[in-house]
Design brief:
7 helices; elongated; 223 residues; MCU_fam; two-stranded antiparallel ribbon
């Protein structure tokens, strides 16, 4: 600047030309005096702002919507392609999930049957074969063994033995084992689902009236 301070590279040219400055080239300073601009009146400044806004809206009307329409077509094509790839995987996943759910349910019923059998056997031994004095230590060790089994489950899984969590864990075990046998690629399926969700979200945001600058009725007609 005129007082010897360096001007930042980010300074706008309009700001630089508002005052005199020095231009240093090859260690030689040249004084520059830009022409004085007449100050715009408030009405003229408002008019200029309106013109800038109008030019911006014209540019948007001529270019932005065409770009958004092309982008919408690309997203729709991508969605169709992803859905075609996912269709056989979804069908295979449904079959695997049905099989895993059936095995998990059978395992739960088997557990209930074993517990019922154990209770009936203890009752029969207590009232008909032996007495409670003889069966009491037996039931104690059965209870202690169950506690050890639950603790071993915690040591192996780092989770408390909660029936719903244990059921979900067993379901996933059956699901992944069945997926491996039928060559179902779980990672590829998850990646396709993520890409599909991302494309649908992009399409939803693109179709918002504020982004597309179209009336809501026209958006609904397109949907």
């Amino acid at each position: 600047s005129a007082d010897g301070s360096k001007v930042s590279d980010a300074t706008l040219m309009e700001v630089l030309l508002m005052n005199d400055f020095k231009l240093a080239i090859n260690n030689t300073a040249y004084s520059v005096s830009p022409p004085v601009k007449d100050k715009l009146s408030s009405e003229h400044a408002t008019e200029m702002e309106d013109i800038k806004s109008l030019v911006h809206r014209l540019f948007v009307a001529l270019h932005l919507e065409d770009h958004q329409i092309r982008r919408e077509r690309e997203l729709l094509q991508k969605l169709d392609h992803l859905k075609e790839e996912l269709l056989p995987l979804e069908q295979m996943k449904a079959r695997i999930m049905a099989s895993a759910d059936a095995k998990t349910s059978r395992l739960l019923w088997v557990g209930l049957a074993l517990m019922s059998t154990q209770g009936g056997a203890l009752a029969w031994l207590t009232w008909w074969v032996y007495s409670w004095d003889i069966m009491e230590p037996v039931t104690y060790f059965i209870t202690y063994g169950s506690a050890m089994a639950f603790y071993a489950y915690f040591v192996l899984t780092k989770q408390d033995y909660i029936y719903t969590d244990a059921k979900d864990r067993q379901f996933l075990h059956y699901f992944y084992r069945k997926s491996k046998k039928q060559h179902f690629n779980v990672e590829r399926y998850n990646k396709l689902k993520e890409d599909l969700a991302e494309a649908e979200e992009s399409l939803r945001r693109l179709r918002q009236p504020l982004h597309l600058r179209l009336p809501i009725q026209e958006i609904n007609d397109k949907d």
